[in-house]
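Narrative of activities, Objective 1.

The group set out to show that a structural description can be obtained from nothing but a protein's sequence at a throughput compatible with the screening campaign. Below is one input-output pair from the validation batch, recorded exactly as produced.
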Amino acid sequence: MRSRLEDLIATADRQLTARSYDAAIDTLRTALAEPGAVEAGVEERMEAVLRARDEARGIVRAAPPPPAPVVEMAEAAPIVEAQAEPQSEPEPTRPPVVPFRTIEPPRFASVQDDPARLERFDREQYPMLEVERLSILHPTAAPDPEPEPDTHDRSWMLKRMVLAAVIAVAVCLIAICIK
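Output recorded for this entry:
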């Protein structure tokens, strides 16, 4: 009986063969969570699927950097700790001195200074300001609806009857012509 990890790897291989790269990547991500995934080489398979997907899409991956050279401890040069010289902190620079100038507070005009502000303007001087005042008690009137036809005037009824007769005759003629 196969383990779950082996089943996931086999499924990913089938998906890769079918060129379902994204499905294979998802399956291998699931396989990475299984115990023994590192020993089974799931990470290498994942890299291979990613490369195959990128090649199919026309994406050229940059070559991985060469591995760092391994240096034996015997070959390494002895590390010499240099005595750090005490560094003095540079003096902070001060902003340039701006000469002092007096700032006067803003002047607000009051009604006491200009009594003309309390006077009401003349409506004749500003005729465009004549506006009808609205109130909740007197809402603006909606336009009057169409007047109902006068019941005493029978001409409208006669017009409707004539129109109905013309339509009936037209329907009868069409029915006769079709037969």
